[in-house]
Amino acid sequence: MLNQGQGNQHLPEFLKKYEQYGALAVNWRLMGSDDHIQRPAGGALKNYISCFPEKEEKEKPMQRLVKSIVNTKYANGTYGNPHHFVLSDGAETVDVMGHVTDGPYNFDMHLKPIAVQHYLFKSLDDFQKKSLRGSGDLNKKPIQYFNLSKEATDTCPWGTEISQRLDVFARKTYDIILDEVT
Predict the structure, then answer these.
(1) Could you tell me how far CA 93 lies from the centroid of its own chain?
(2) Which residues does the chain have with pLDDT short of 50?
(3) How far apart are CA 176 and CA 86, in angstroms?
(4) Rounded CA separation 1/46 (Å)
(5) How many CB atoms lie within 10 A of CB 134?
(6) What pLDDT, on the 0 to 100 scale, is given for residue 177?
(7) pTM across the whole model
(8) Pairing mode, strands 50-51 and 75-78
(9) 37 — phi, psi (to 5°)?
(10) d(CA 150, CA 52)
(11) pLDDT at 81
(12) SS3 label, residue 35
């Protein structure tokens, strides 16, 4: 999610300043449940705007995990997870400030100007279903873990703004297709 002062910049344009690096480590921005019990209509971008504070307590570094945007000309594989990649000799992974990072965490967390909005909780019903099946790493979180969603006390409205733009784009695209068919 490009946010806070990025205007209408698109991701490829944003990434140009990092082309010389092997990868860009982008911190998670954990989103809360917004007290939804059941899944609301309209999707995650519209319905989940509560987020964890940018400055976290040291003993709860939940947003320190990163996702990497990898420059494929430097990629040599993974370490078995989607957070950290093996890069060719001399290539480095940096954060948005240009600081070299190593590993799946960036403890010098920066959530501006870009972050990966991570919808860890969503509604209670969604969380329970995900807990039964396990996450991507087959980790099953107990229901007590859902209580952490109460710590999402900030507001991150960028997903709502993008959702509105996507709705307009979808309506325009639908109208164009409909005109071509009729």
Answers:
(1) 18
(2) none
(3) 44
(4) 14
(5) 11
(6) 79
(7) 0.77
(8) unpaired
(9) -90, -50
(10) 9
(11) 74
(12) coil
Tokens of 48: 């989940």
Let me know if 128 is exposed, middle or buried by CB neighbors in 10 A (0-12, 13-18, 19+): exposed
Give the closest residue to 21 by CA, choosing from 104, 82, 85: 85
pLDDT of residue 143: 83
Place of tokens 């307009």: 168
pLDDT of residue 131: 85
Query: What is the domain partition of the chain in residue ranges?
Result: 11-157
Distance CA 114, CA 1 (A): 6
Of the candidates 95, 77, 120, the one whose C-alpha atom is nearest the C-alpha of residue 27 is 95
The enclosing H or E element of 47 equals helix 44-47
The answer to whether the beta carbons of residues 86 and 48 sit under 8 Å apart is no
